[in-house]
Each structure stands twice: as C-alpha cells, then as structure tokens.
Design a protein that fits this description.
The chain is elongated. The N terminus is likely disordered. Helix content is 69%, strand content 0%. The two termini are 17 Å apart.
Length: 358
C-alpha cells in the first residue's frame, strides 16, 4: 500500500554528463589516431544519448573505450546510460572503472554512489558519497544523497546533519528543508520539523518539493489539533500540484474531521480517480453510509470493488459482506466468502483514513 509516511524528496540522481572529453596530445601517431577516433565515437554517443537512443549510445561509448580504454569521460557517460536503462550492475562496474581512472574526481565518486544506491547497496553508496565530499567539501548534491542513504539505513542523526549541511550551502533548497523536517519528525521533534516545513513552504518556487513541504506541514498541524491550519496547507499543496493524490486524501480526511462531509467526498473522489486505493475505500464508505451524499449502495459496492482489487483489506471485508447480503447488487454467497476469505489470518483490517493523520 506504500506512500503513507511523510514524503521525502527524491535523490539527485542525474550523474555528471560529459559533452566532451579531453584527448591527449602526446604519444605515437598511431595512438593519436586511435584517440581521435575514440573522440569521434564519444561525440556520436552523446548525440545518440540526446536522441534517447540509449542502446546506440552504449555501442558508441564501448567503441570509444575499445580504442582508448583510459577514456574517463566515456567510462562515466557509459555508467550514466547503463543506469538509465536499468542495467545497474553494469553501471556500477563502469563507475568503479571511472573512479580508478580518476580517483581525485569527486563527480566520479558521486556517480558511483548514485549507481550503488539505485542498486540497493546503501553501505557502499554511503562510502562513495563520503569520498565525493572529502574531495569537494561543498558538494551539496552529494550531501543530499548521503542524507537520503543514511535515512534509509536508520541513521537519523546522520541524515539530519547532511540535510542541514545542504541547507547551509544552498538555503533555498526546498527538498533539503523538507527532508530535514521529515527526519526531525521521525526523531520525535515535531516543533523543529514544523519550522523546517514552514521554511520550505515559504520559498517562492512552484515545485513538487514545496508541495510536499506544504502537505507535511499540514500533517503535523493536524496532529497538533490545528485542523483549519492543516486544511490550508493541504490546499496550498494542491495549488502547486493539482494531481497530488495524497494531498487530496489528506485534505478529505481533515474536511471530514471538520464535518464538511461533502467537501471530504469531493477530495476522496479526486484522490480515487488519481488511483489511490484507500481513497477508493473512503468514497465507497461515503456512498454506503450517506456521508456528504445520498446513500447509494450500488456506487458503494462499485468503489469497494475497486479498492478491494488494489488489496485494501477493509474494502475486501465490506465487499464480501455486500455480496453475502445482496446489498448494492445481486446476492452471491460464493463471491462474498471469497473476498472475506482473502483477509483470513489478518488480525484486523488496516485503518481506512489517511494513516499519516492518526
């Protein structure tokens, strides 16, 4: 069901892409000829990459490397292309070769960290990011991705330190401020988290990062009992990202809490139409119980079915009961028992409101 914790802004995953590569001038005429030919293939690889012909780019970079195995820029660009294609083992291998060629290059260590992180090797990714920062102490993107990696490993103090470092280097980075707030929330320091979310949400930047900060601030305000303040933040998030399903759902939950049942239904419907399973269950509940709308068992059954198909256990139970009792459509005991049977072994169904707002 994923996605219900406060939203962390994503990694800086774009690796350093070299548009040109330095060629040596010394060497035999044959060596110079090979290196110049390698440069031609490198340039062709860049063109193919720009045209989204990733396999063509791989072929050109490999040809360049056959001609000149120490071509650092070709190694690193090849790593980037492999990462884009999802061939992460090859991406890691090429990045490691690039680091061997230029151990003093911070970008190579950063690129290796990104490939390792994407491949799930957080321990070595952390080491690679630290290597990049040792070489370039003000490398904000390396600090940022190191913070994400430490957070994933459960080192919240370390993650907070890295996000603070990014915010110090680049005070207007909404993603760093938002993520610092998320980590502080996880550490139980809600007041400090609210401060960071407010700082991020006040940036004059129309980006998903600021939208996430508004929603995360709304979640904390809701927990603190400021329902109207939370509603305002959820609405601000949606001004920036109208298709932000989780913000629609959070707004619906807050509106329901404030007894605006029709408004809550509208937000649940918006989130459900964007594909959010728990919102589908909430729409079904509204139609089934007549919350903000006239009771409509047929529509309730339809929406419970959608939620149940997405694995919402509470919806599976409700749908099964409707089939067993012929509510909202024909009675079908076999189908009813099938849906209820899917929840066997579960202690209780998950809550059906936005879990982040409990």
């Amino acid at each position: 069901m994923g996605g219900w914790r406060r939203v962390l802004c994503g990694a800086c995953v774009s690796l350093v892409f070299f548009a040109s590569g330095a060629l040596r001038s010394e060497g035999s005429p044959a060596d110079c000829k090979r290196e110049k030919s390698a440069g031609v293939h490198f340039t062709r690889g860049n063109v193919r990459f720009s045209d989204y012909d990733l396999q063509g780019a791989i072929s050109e970079y490999r040809t360049a490397l056959r001609l000149w195995p120490d071509y650092f820029e070709a190694r690193l660009n090849l790593c980037i292309v492999f990462a884009r294609t999802g061939d992460l083992n090859e991406a890691v291998a090429e990045c490691r070769e690039a680091v061997k060629l230029k151990p003093e290059d911070a970008h190579a260590h950063f690129s290796l960290g990104n490939a390792l992180r994407k491949n799930g090797d957080l321990g070595n990714a952390i080491a690679a990011y630290r290597g990049a920062i040792r070489l370039e102490p003000e490398y904000a993107d390396a600090d940022f991705n190191l913070g994400l990696s430490l957070e994933s490993k459960g080192d919240l103090e370390g993650a907070a330190a890295q996000f603070r470092s990014v915010a110090k280097l680049q005070p207007n980075r909404a993603d760093a401020l938002n993520n610092l707030g998320v980590v502080l929330d996880r550490m139980g320091n809600t007041s400090a988290a609210i401060t960071e979310y407010r700082a991020a949400s006040q940036l004059r930047e129309h980006s998903p990062d600021v939208a996430h900060a508004h929603r995360n601030l709304g979640l904390d305000l809701y927990r603190e009992g400021d329902i109207q303040g939370a509603i305002a933040q959820f609405r601000d998030a949606l001004k920036l990202m109208p298709d932000y399903a989780e913000a629609h759902f959070s707004l619906g939950t807050a509106l329901e809490r404030s007894n605006d049942l029709r408004g809550a239904l509208n937000e649940y419907l918006a989130a459900a139409k964007l594909g959010l399973p728990l919102a589908m269950n909430s729409v079904a509940t509204c139609y089934g119980q007549g919350k903000g709308v006239e009771k409509n068992p047929a529509k309730a059954r339809k929406w419970y079915l959608q939620a149940a198909l997405h694995g919402v256990r509470a919806a599976q139970i409700s749908l099964g009961s409707m089939y067993l009792n012929g509510i909202g459509g024909p009675q079908n005991r076999v189908e009813g028992m099938r849906w209820i049977g899917m929840t066997a072994g579960q202690e209780k169904p998950e809550e059906t409101r936005d879990p982040a707002l409990r």
